[in-house]
Write a structure and sequence with these properties.
The protein has 266 residues and is mainly alpha-helical. It has 2 domains: 181 residues, no CATH class; 62 residues, no CATH class. It is built from 9 helices and 2 strands. The mean pLDDT is 82. Helix content is 68%, strand content 3%. It has a two-stranded antiparallel ribbon with strand order 1-2.
């Protein structure tokens, strides 16, 4: 649980931290779209270098990014097994008894792993360099044009911001409950299947109770401060785009265009 870093803001003084949240969100969307184009290993290598340069510019540690990837390793192993059982194209890499493992099965899994790594790097960089309040303001501003068709921009932005904000809190609460259960003799790792299921239930039930209690406390606090959904609100902080934001947007858009062109050439 402690390996999950998505949603954690890391206070630093870097050019990426000082960028406008709207520019960072749009840049993230451009790069995420670029990741899904079939650009081959050359394209993914270019994307990895560009994203790594952004991470270095944001003064983030790669160990912090890797901790976001570690919880996905089980899913990648599961995908590898499924691909080995289903995909029967390409050359035969090796044979186990009468069962043949094809090259396309391994390559498909590697493509998924690389894409997942790039997406996690981008999203973690965004959440680690953007305060929850700034994220809310940025999402709300980007959704403003959709108000004309009845989209509640502020409410959606508030929900996304609260969800991102409470991910670290829920992880810490889970760790606290696990330690409390272990101190009472509950073994989360060993035992029969039935005992493991009961141990998980002893973790899930208090976690849900704590989550609902936090939600109720937050709702009461918002009501006490006069928050009314749908009402026009003023802002203490007004966002302004600067030259570095346009540079970030331009670079990410050119990256997307470059990946589109590369996918047509390959």
């Amino acid at each position: 649980m402690g390996n999950i870093t998505l949603g954690r803001y890391i206070p630093m003084d870097s050019p990426i931290h000082r960028c406008d949240p709207r520019g960072k969100i749009m840049a993230m969307l451009f790069v995420l779209i670029a990741v899904f184009f079939p650009v081959g290993w050359i394209g993914y290598g270019i994307l990895f270098c560009l994203i790594s340069f952004t991470i270095v510019l944001a003064k983030l540690k790669f160990n912090f990014i890797w901790r976001s990837m570690k919880p996905m390793l089980f899913m990648l192993c599961f995908l590898l097994v499924i691909n080995i059982l289903v995909v029967k194209t390409g050359t035969v890499l090796f044979t186990i008894g009468d069962f043949e493992i094809y090259s396309d099965a391994v390559l498909n899994t590697l493509y998924i792993a690389v894409r997942l790594l790039l997406m996690i790097m981008v999203t973690t960089c965004l959440t680690a360099t953007t305060k929850p309040l700034e994220m809310t303001l940025g999402i709300e501003d980007l959704l403003k044009p959709f108000r004309k068709i009845g989209v509640p921009a502020h409410e959606i932005a508030m929900l996304i911001s609260i969800a991102l904000r409470f991910i670290p809190d829920l992880i810490e609460e889970t760790q606290r409950i696990m330690k409390a259960q272990e101190s009472r003799g509950v073994d989360m790792k060993e035992g029969k299947l039935k005992e493991k299921i009961m141990a998980i239930l002893s973790l899930i039930v208090p976690l849900f109770v704590s989550a609902f209690q936090r939600a109720e406390d937050l709702a009461n606090a918002m009501e006490a401060r006069g928050y009314v959904p749908g009402e026009k609100r003023t802002r203490y902080k007004v966002l302004h785009m600067q030259m570095r934001d346009y540079i970030l947007l331009g670079a990410s858009f050119l990256t997307l265009v470059g990946m589109i062109v590369l996918s047509r050439v390959i």
